[in-house]
Protein: Dynein heavy chain tail domain-containing protein
Amino acid sequence: PEVKFWNDRVKNLQCVYTQLREPRVEKMASILELTESTYFPPFRNMFRNVVASLTEAKEISIYLKPLIRYFEKMELMDFNEIEPLFRPLLHTICLIWVNSRYYCNVTKLIVLIKEIANLLIHQASKYLDPSALLEGDVDECRDSVLLCLRYLETFRLMFEEYRAKLPTMFKEGHEPVPWTFHPKMAFGRMFLFVRAS
Structure:
């Protein structure tokens, strides 16, 4: 959803920008400017805001694009095969944070990590199909539950590992921007899921 949100935002803002660049709109803007209309400053500010927002959305959309393949793989794989994706996924998120001018923002990152945690919970829930758990061998069922809990904890611990080494990923001369939020902000639902399992 985060990737889709930014892709949709690019499309929507591009439409608004295209409309604002139509000859008749530009003519109206020049008339407002020439007549020193009180409507011109708000129009100019709106245009600048659209341009700035479009620039931000395009940049974020480009940086988030590599995450799509990880999300698609996570959705298609069985949960017991998913763990090898954690490290490259978190490394990619760090690279986005370090290099993106606009996505280096705690609020945006929390949304992204929440979505990944929710996807992991969803995949774990599918893997732990309740009807199969009730009908299956007790030891196999216990092993499945333990595997899910271990993988969820592995993801969270890897997140903390990458959080700790994030400052070393910034280029020389660039001030490191750490992930300063409490883990509950991103992993709250996962903590509840693990507790309930």
